[in-house]
Structures are given as structure tokens and as C-alpha cells.
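Hello,

Following up on my earlier ticket. Below are the two sequence lines again, exactly as submitted.
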Amino acid sequence: MDGQPTERAQRLSRAAAQRLSLYLRAVAAWPADGDKIVPSRRIADAVGVSDAQVRRDLAALGHLGQRGIGYDAKELAAAIRAALGIDRGWRAVLVGVGNLGRALLKYQGFRAQGFEIVALFDADPTKVGQVVEGLTVEPAATAAARVAELGAELGVLTVPGTSAPGVADELARGGVRGILNFAPVVLKLPKHVRLVTVDVAIQLEQLAFQVQHGDGDDE
Amino acid sequence: MDGQPTERAQRLSRAAAQRLSLYLRAVAAWPADGDKIVPSRRIADAVGVSDAQVRRDLAALGHLGQRGIGYDAKELAAAIRAALGIDRGWRAVLVGVGNLGRALLKYQGFRAQGFEIVALFDADPTKVGQVVEGLTVEPAATAAARVAELGAELGVLTVPGTSAPGVADELARGGVRGILNFAPVVLKLPKHVRLVTVDVAIQLEQLAFQVQHGDGDDE
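Thanks for your patience. The regenerated structure is below:
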């Protein structure tokens, strides 16, 4: 790789980046029974987009694949990882060790993609000191200092909406560069801290919208 | 309302529908201290999009608001609900009563938007019969029959990826029209069943992508 894929990736739209994540899943699931070459058509089928879309998106990553044949699965996975910025490890902390936090900690999909949760925090003193998935829960009030100490770049927020703004500020103060927020609130963060919010009620609303109005015309 | 908002809503893009969900949050949070009028600018600030975008999106819902003044908060909320299809209740079932399932059941944000979980299912016989948030866990094998019986339209899947395709088929057979899937797999469903997938690892990847390449230019 000559660095060009990364430069190009800076111009990827968010929608394209989302599709790349899905392509990566499809490529990783590609049967390793000797066939190293995955046709764009198979990726398209697995993800539910058009063949042309896949080829266009992957062309933006640089010179990959052979016309009319397909992509080397390993090479393609590496190129997508590089474009997304997950060709290296990311250290994250998680705040809020309730049911949702525990569910995320159990989920191995993170680790496979290079994300490591290195510390847990909770504001509830009865939870502090508990060991969850091999990590000891620390007091939420120490989060900023610990983030700095651990060099964690990402924070996962599984706290109630009322606590989320304060906790997010703490994490930003500690030096995280991105927050994955599960609280149903819109957070205001310093400009250099990126935010992705997963609001389950909004996802349900979107599903209802599609059921109500959808007619199978897309997706 | 004369039915026109709904007709127009059919032409809403998914991106616009997502923004409407966010506007609805902002309008619902609008202080009720006598001021019933919410300026588009305040909605824009709360959601983090441009004023012009808000006005354009809301114009698509029909004749709402007064130029240069703002929108009646109650009327606007009702119009957005109608456009999204959540001006009525939705019955849903949940399959997979693990940590994630329990976290969702505790989350009151659903109910406030008209979504009611009416039955719980799990394949684990030791969980069947347990009462969780007021509902008794039923055997997963009975899901199709029960969905039909209860007239549930939506299914929430909080099962492992390996079980998700089979469970989704069952729910579709029972007659659900939409599935909210938390398993990290791409599900193939009959054309009339809509799908929204929440894949947390993908959200984390997107966050990493934004941290790596983002420069505060959007969001």
C-alpha cells in the first residue's frame, strides 16, 4: 500500500464509509475453501446493494481487483480496514455498567475489529469494584484522569440521558477523540471530538416509517 | 390534518426521516413555559443541522409554521409523528432476553413514542417462564404463532448472530412487517418485511473513521 488509499479515504462520504463496513463483513465471511477471489456481485448480494455501487465504492480505494474476475479477499479486507482507519488498534473506555454496558462488553465483535475496552466506570458506588468481563469497575469521577493515563481515544457511553452530557464532558477533558453515545440525547462536544449516537427509539421510528410507507423500493 | 402530510411523507428520503426523528426530540424538549412557538433556528441548533435544512424538511410536511416566527410546537410534533407513521401505537415482540434485551425493555423511550413490547421469547428453557419487566418469557419456538395471535407488527431481535436468521424467518412467518435487528448479520427477509439493523461494531468503525479522517467539517 502506498498511502494513496488513505488519502483517498479522506474524501469518502459517511454513507460510503458505512457501506465499506458492510462490505468488510461480507468479505470476512467469504468462504476460505481455497477460493481467495471474491466477485463484486457476491459482495453486492450479501449487503443488498447493486453490483455497480460496490465496484464504484471499491474503485475509490485505489487499484484493487481484476476486471471481470473479482477481488483478492485478503487484500480487499486490508484495503477497507485502512480506508476506515481500523488497520490499527483503538483503546476505548466504557461508562455505565448496566444491562446495555454488560451486553456490549460481552460482544466479541468489537475485539475482532481492533477495539479494546480498557476501563469501565460507573457512578453507582455499589458497582465500583465489581469485576465485569475481566475489568474492575472504577468510579465515574475518575474517568477523565484515567482516560489520559490509559491513552484511550474512544469512549462508549451507556449511561442514562440525564448523566450523558456531564460524562461526555469528562471524557472529552480526559482526551478522548470520539464518543459512541447510546443515551437518547444530542450531546454538544468540543469540535475535535467526534460523535456517533445510537438511539434505539429513533431506529424503531425509522422502522415504523419504512413499514408504513415502504414498498420494497430500496434496501 | 387533511391527509396530505401522509401522502407527502411517502416521498421522504430515509435521511430526511432520520432528521425528522431528531427534530421531534428537539420539539418535545421545547420548554413549555408558555412559549408554544419554536423557531426553526432552535431546532437546528439542538440537532446540529442548518436552519435552512430544518425549514426545507418541515416544508415537505405541508403548510406549517409562520414565516419569520416559527412553528407551533404541538402542531409540529403531531405533523412529524404523522409523517413518520408514529401517530398510532405499534405492537412489537422481542426475541432474546439477554443483557441487551433487558436493557431495551427497561428503556422507556420506546413507550413514549408509541411502541409497546407485548411478548418476550427466548430459546433458553431456563429463561422461559421468567418474568421480565412485567412480561413472562415464552419459548422461541412459539413465536410465529404468538405473533399472529397478538397481531404484533414489529419484531426486535436481540439474539446471537447465529440464531438471528432462523428467528427472523419465524417472525416473518408469524406476520411481522418490520424487524429491528441487533445481531451483527445481514438478514434476508421477504420483500414485504422491512429491516433496520443496529450493528454496534459498525457504529464503532464509523466513529473510528470519523476520528481518523474527520476534521469537524460536518455533523
